[in-house]
Amino acid sequence: MDTVKVALVGFGTIGIGVAKILLGQQERIAGAVGRNVKLVRICDKDTQRDRGVKLPAEMLTDDLNVILNDSEIFTAIELVGGIEPARSIILSLLKSGKNVVTANKALLATHGGEIFDAARSYNRSISFEAAVGGGIPVVNAISTALQANALCQLQAIVNGTCNFILTQMEERGTDYATAVAEAQRLGYAEANPAMDVNGTDTVQKLAILAHLGFGAKPNWQDVPRTGIDTVEAIDIVYAKRLGYRIKLLAVAEATPDGVELYVSPTLVRIDTPVANVRDSFNIIRIVGDAVGDVLLQGRGAGELPTASAIVGDVIDTILGRAKITFDTLNLWKKERPATKIKNPAEICGKNYLRFLVEDRPGVLAEIAGILGRHKISIASVLQQQDNESNNSPAVLIIMTHVSREGDTLAAIDTIDSLVCVRGKTVRMRVE
Amino acid sequence: MDTVKVALVGFGTIGIGVAKILLGQQERIAGAVGRNVKLVRICDKDTQRDRGVKLPAEMLTDDLNVILNDSEIFTAIELVGGIEPARSIILSLLKSGKNVVTANKALLATHGGEIFDAARSYNRSISFEAAVGGGIPVVNAISTALQANALCQLQAIVNGTCNFILTQMEERGTDYATAVAEAQRLGYAEANPAMDVNGTDTVQKLAILAHLGFGAKPNWQDVPRTGIDTVEAIDIVYAKRLGYRIKLLAVAEATPDGVELYVSPTLVRIDTPVANVRDSFNIIRIVGDAVGDVLLQGRGAGELPTASAIVGDVIDTILGRAKITFDTLNLWKKERPATKIKNPAEICGKNYLRFLVEDRPGVLAEIAGILGRHKISIASVLQQQDNESNNSPAVLIIMTHVSREGDTLAAIDTIDSLVCVRGKTVRMRVE
Asked: For residue A125, which of A253, A394, A331, A317 has the smallest C-alpha distance?
């Protein structure tokens, strides 16, 4: 049996998982590939920290050139994350003749065109199963097994941190800040959880899925995005009373006016599979025109689940399947016409609105009037005072019937400028 | 763009779906393959029946030789089903140089070795995504994306007919016969539903998954199998009261003593994803040592969902990915050592037992005594008389703690021979 050499750049949590599998399961991987797969180099700027993985001497280096100059390495894994230096590293790996496996959703969502064009120009492949949904084989499913379908809809929970926080809030009745602190204590959330809770991570993954499944090339910054940082305990309670759970959803839907895209906390019917995905689990619901509903569920993050996807891609790359898929799909290719993206203002849907208002006569009439003038009709209302004092503001929750996004945002703008309204209106979508 | 020719053998429900996609979505398929994919021949013994698909002249034939002798056809789809003539057809397709795509679980489970060896000897490939779970890409996931994992466990609902019947019984409170009739009326069950309800279909799919995921080569006839034809309304009601739903599960589990395999109606905790799969949907829960839990859910049958998997395999075959996977996995290869299968008598688990007994003093003591002598301890008991008359038999339900399968079966045998016991004991597993 001959041997193929693999290198790893970026020795953080996922990198440690990859090293554990490649070094610890050599026999199994050789069985799956038909060749010995040898991890020969790991590059990281920190060569000192003890990561709890026993490495052969000289495997760990802080000099990328050691990998670039080894012409026997055909497969390299980029796990640095973020834009730079990850972008430059991938470009130099490709230039030096390596096929690349990456988990870098920020880079793909931002510079997919550049790095995929580079891979094409060097006749190499890029694989990225781990960029979306961790260990869940969703990229593979859309890229291969579901290719007979035109996708109609995609609905996904792809941020485990947010789902953990929302689950804590619902099941333990804690407020947002307490749930975030618990997520940090358990290692589900970083010290600065902004990229997770403000929806950035989710929208970058949606941009990748929207390209892969619908041929759209969204600029992720332009996709409407609301995070979970505005969700409060009362939202969870009220949603539950109406038969819903709140989930941070990434949605893509094919419509005659283009692909609808958005990320928003969303009230999802409690008896659906998506509503029942708990803790840090992820789910991707795909609706294809032939296959109907397909749901893929699993751990969207973590050392070994994500490493499972990375090593799967390494195997695919060595076997040559990854190159076939890469050459066939023409992802992020300049010449490939992009599917139109629907004007976000034209997206229609039901909404959940929470206002903090002065508790005096006429306030509800004023707000309802503004909604009416924007052609938004009301499905249900709940008004509740925060405490007994007469001057304290009241919480007003309105569920709307289907309305145009443009009208909804204009109405919220007008309402937020009213004297009787305190703070900013919280808006979530309703499935 | 050049053209590749494809042929179809067997023009029933799934064949019609395949023809609809290949003939109706030519542009999309060409986009996914980079070549025009042309369905040139369909072979079926019935060339007269109107199937509602408009076919070009001369496409439909009852002569397989037309396909065998066309040396420009490299990919053929077998949808005849069953053992013969499907087996002979696949062997002659391979011999004449065609790669084969099939949905035939009965054939794979029974003659996998023969047809895979034939494909290897002719240097061709066989793909079979549609054989398990219809449109759900489970074969693909295990064969490619999850290859970094050793599978620990697999738990599956892979028969939509049974799941529909059980859902009807639970949600409408109907008895078994009424639910079967409803499934037949809606086209979910055939006129003779025996292969579905007695678990044969499920156990054949389990045999395929057990080989694919665990390297076992079970003879499907030897795998312990109980169907749903013994489930009665009272079982559903009592299970629900204890927090369970009854699902027909296929289970494979890696243990130090070999792979545990069985098919049985099983009491599954009501708050798990598997318990919440309704109607004709299927689910496959895979537990890998790296990825943890992965759940794949979707339509396990039906014209277009199954055709989605078939056409996905056709695309994989034309692109050459199928051949790489086929050559790498060495499925059903004689020389490949099979993983040991655990002696069914040694499988341990909790059980749900329902007895029909004479309603007289001492009966419970007698049955409990037999269970005790077989080292089976009792977790809970329910005794209920069918009607008010003193002489009518009573239903006795016992939930056991964990016991050895061999002991359980021996105890049931002894109990069934008691004078005070009417009919055969109904046994289900408890998750």
From this structure: A317
